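Page 37, continued from 36.
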């Protein structure tokens, strides 16, 4: 009885080869043009620089708030800071203080004597300053 050997089908290794080549092509495309590929590396580095600068700005703001909060510590409270803040909030001044009036619109000091300014202008400036 003669036996016949079956010849393996040629399409199975061919299909495996095509599938593996397609997968390698996908990996190559992703390595070059993908989200984290070579072409997007410059954009990623630019984003890193922007985020580092934002982080530094936020850290400086945090340090400023931390410094201000330590100034308000009851054990280390500076009387000059307390009187300065109280006088600023109450719009009060000592008799020996020098007061410079500033135009709220331009931010420049007002020049001239008290008599040269109209009384209603001074009242408007004081009212605008007290609103701020």
């Amino acid at each position: 009885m003669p036996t016949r050997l079956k010849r393996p089908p040629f399409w199975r290794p061919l299909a495996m080869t095509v599938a593996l080549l397609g997968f390698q092509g996908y990996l190559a495309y992703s390595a070059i043009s993908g989200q984290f590929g070579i072409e997007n590396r410059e954009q990623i580095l630019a984003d890193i620089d922007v985020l580092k600068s934002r982080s530094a700005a936020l850290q400086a703001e945090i340090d400023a708030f931390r410094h201000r909060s330590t100034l308000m510590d009851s054990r280390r409270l500076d009387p000059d800071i307390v009187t300065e803040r109280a006088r600023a909030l109450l719009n009060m001044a000592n008799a020996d203080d020098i007061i410079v009036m500033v135009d709220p619109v331009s931010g420049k000091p007002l020049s001239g004597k008290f008599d040269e300014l109209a009384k209603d202008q001074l009242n408007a400036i004081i009212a605008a300053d007290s609103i701020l």
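The radius of gyration is 38 Å. Flag for discussion at group meeting. The chain has four helices and no strands.
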